[in-house]
Amino acid sequence: MPCNISYACLDCRKAFKRPVHLQNMPEHAPCPECGGPMHDFGRHFKAPRQDDIKQWKKVRFLIEHGFRFQKIRTGPGHHDTVPYPDTLEEARTFVVTYRRFASPASVADDAD
Ligand SMILES: [Zn+2]
């Protein structure tokens, strides 16, 4: 059974749901608007409004630091899931605090 995964294009600031098989999930898909790479945001992503530039900046920042809206659990329980930050400012702290949960493939190569 395929399931609906959100892919978003950071340049068009649009998200598209695509039915994919989890065993064979492409990490990137071409954007239907601009042909650029869309990132896989999993099943839990809620796209910001297209004109909400600040929110999209936050999304891009999280992606660049290896956070693709995967669930982050700090403990074994259902309630130990960490909420994603609401603002870019919160995101700056978030990526440092939860660095160990970042997806290694997309960790930005920055020095700070
Ligand atoms: Zn695009």
TrEMBL record:
Originating species: Oleiagrimonas citrea
Protein name per Swiss-Prot or TrEMBL: Uncharacterized protein
